[in-house]
User: What shape does this take?
Amino acid sequence: MAMTMNGQVQLSASREVVWAKLNDPEVLKSCIPGSEQFDRIAGNEFQAVATVKVGPVKARWKGKVRLSDLDPPNSYRISGEGEGGVAGFAKGGAKVSLSDKDGGTLLTYDVEAQIGGKLAQLGQRLINSAAKKTADDFFIKFAAAVTQPQ
Amino acid sequence: MYAFTQHRPATVRQAASLLAKQEEAKLLAGGHTLIPTMKLRLAGPKHLVDLSKVEGLSGIEMKGRSLTIGAMTTHVEVQTSPVVRENIPALAELAGKIGDPAVRHRGTIGGSLANNDPNADYPAAALGLGATIITNKRRIPADEFFKGLFETALEPDEIVTKVQFPKVNKAAYVKFPNPASRYALVGVFVSKRSSEIRVVVTGAGANGVFRVTAFEEALKKRFGAKSLEGLTVPADGMASDIHGSAEYRAHLIGVLARRAVAAAG
Assistant: This one.
């Protein structure tokens, strides 16, 4: 099944700082909910492991994440695909753009993803809400990370 | 299903200590959410702490103006209890509309509240009646218990033991069930207890159960379906899936709230 999600987050840091944090695997690792591993394997490719827990469902996902269409410090595309064992698979990406606003930075994201396997069959009533919650959790942590000194 | 070890403690204290000691342990109440999830291997807890042999976790009792229901009390016990029917009939009716007969005979009130499924019925009753959730550690008001999608104020080794509902003057629950699962696509619980009015929605919010304060204020002036005419809930923050868009759910809240108020009288 396909899933789309978009939103905007106001961050109190300059566009350059936000851009640097968006490209820092340590920052991404600490902000991705349930993230266990986020290691650079080459240039802009990363190996990621995350445990996703939504209610009774708990699945460990392994996959690759890639940054592309880099236009510093304005926008990039983050994409990936992962396997959650029998739970299913997911692949997709998000276009992330930055612009100056109110002395800080406005981050706009536009996600498109494909989810398959059992999780997609069973989770249809929950996937959108779960994805939104994951994004919200990520940005709460990310908003705190960008205001920390480098 | 992945292999797991089943524990059958006899007391709440033993259950809590097992839960704290074992890694990847889950409590097993009625098992009608957890077991199907495990069968599909969407969850693989290493330990199950079965509450079925724990003494004193089920039963229904009216004391003064509050109704206490044990956490392991099944939906069908609440549905058919003369005590519940006499004191809070809306609660008995709600229990009778949960899932199917298998779910109602196995599923428990404590399990449903601890799971906090965004489409479940009991969270609407707990928040809609201003209940208190009693655990092995403390008493948690419903207003502080539900923390979003499948999240509650419960700590990892905390166990719901009882739920206490205050007797209200008026209450009703109206839901628009998904025809296959009977989960609430949208459900609205309204109650009136002297000057306190609650309008609570389940199934619609992306973050689970929530109160509609604008509706509550309107009903404070006059408790009648007419008071809600023209009032709407914004679609922002509503869940959206193949069964219904956010706008559709927001619309249903208005319709069902008016019906619930009319049913409460």
